[in-house]
């Protein structure tokens, strides 16, 4: 899809704002091509046009646009690996808006739920301290006030809805945000009409989809090229044994696939508990075997990880002994969750899959996990798209 910029939109000072912003955004992209970090891609170049339009409108005087005609956001969707997050990086860096925030969508929703809970449970003094107001029973408006106070521009990575608790509040929350002139930019693997597909009570979610299409310019970043998959397909994804050479190669692949993105970390909320994962960058997770399999985690934790991350880098997987049966069992649950979600897995291990748990309780059943680990290195598996399921609490 080629997106044609709107004509007649800018005049006077607005046109100057457009001229000031556009070179910065496109120049960042073109510099990446010249440096060899990116390959020329016409679909990506086309998708830059609406992002340039929005950056210009945000930079224009508020009296021209923002009070009478808030800028439309951008909803950028397309297959995995097409460069959506990369374009978001360039847009966010170029956008001349002081009150801006970029956040993973699931992190944002976790924060929204906590604000809603704080309003419902807080007494008037606590509400006043946190929200600046205290009256009323409905938590949506004060929650939106807090969010809008901190960000005029909200940029979401990987907008997807798999949780019924999120689905039931999104329409009202986003309506309140739009009413406060918050502008949204989002990347997603799914078109708006595909969000929360087959979810429970989806008919109640449909107004949110219509709201997105009204308030955001929907742009498909199409094309057959999965740049990330192309790099992963040609790379080694199982590194063993553990030594300086394999460690360096493992880390180099992480840097390559994430394009050096900032590791912002992620906190998942599972059954009222919080699981903090410090080395997360967008849909990528970098974690150790010890942190995921030697801690008191269970199947629900691993399902949440598989839902949240499309690619997991797991380091320092040891050869397990009979005394490690609990860690081996957790490892099995982790691999099952990642496999069922078609998440990609890169491993730094002490041995090949078949030699990781040669004897001990459950070692016979571990053979199925070893088989899955071999399959997850195959080209056919790497071609599979990430398929997180809808979760009902």
Write the layout of secondary structure elements.
Blueprint: H1 13-34, H2 42-59, E1 73-77, H3 84-94, E2 100-104, H4 105-121, H5 124-131, H6 140-150, E3 153-157, H7 164-179, E4 183-188, H8 206-215, E5 216-220, H9 227-233, E6 238-239, H10 244-257, E7 266-270, E8 273-277, E9 280-281, E10 284-288, H11 289-293, H12 299-308, E11 311-317, H13 325-340, E12 344-349, H14 363-375, H15 379-383
Parallel strand pairs: 1-4, 1-5, 2-3, 3-4, 6-12, 10-11, 11-12
Antiparallel strand pairs: 7-8, 9-10
Helix pairs in contact: 1-2, 1-3, 2-3, 4-6, 6-7, 7-8, 12-13, 13-14
Oligomer: single chain
CATH top-level class of the largest domain:
Alpha Beta
What's the gyration radius in Å?
Answer: 23 Å
Largest sheet: 5 strands, parallel
Low-confidence stretches: 1-23
> What is the level-2 CATH architecture name of the largest domain?
3-Layer(aba) Sandwich
Number of helices: 15
Defining traits:
2 domains; Rossmann fold; disordered N terminus; 393 residues; alpha/beta; 47% helix; five-stranded parallel sheet; 15 helices; 12 strands; globular
Word description of this protein:
By secondary structure, the protein is α/β, with parallel strands linked by helices. The protein has 2 domains: 13-220, 3-Layer(aba) Sandwich (Rossmann fold), CATH 3.40.50.300; 227-383, 3-Layer(aba) Sandwich (Rossmann fold). 47% of the residues lie in helices and 15% in strands. The protein has 15 helices and 12 strands. The chain has helices spanning 13-34, 42-59, 84-94, 105-121, 124-131, 140-150, 164-179, 206-215, 227-233, 244-257, 289-293, 299-308, 325-340, 363-375, 379-383; strands at 73-77, 100-104, 153-157, 183-188, 216-220, 238-239, 266-270, 273-277, 280-281, 284-288, 311-317, 344-349. It has a 5-stranded parallel beta sheet. Strands 6-12-11-10-9 form a 5-stranded mixed beta sheet. Helix 1 packs across helix 3 (84-94) and helix 12 (299-308) packs parallel to helix 13 (325-340). The protein is globular, with a radius of gyration of 23 Å. 38% of the residues are buried. Mean pLDDT is 85; it is low at 1-23.
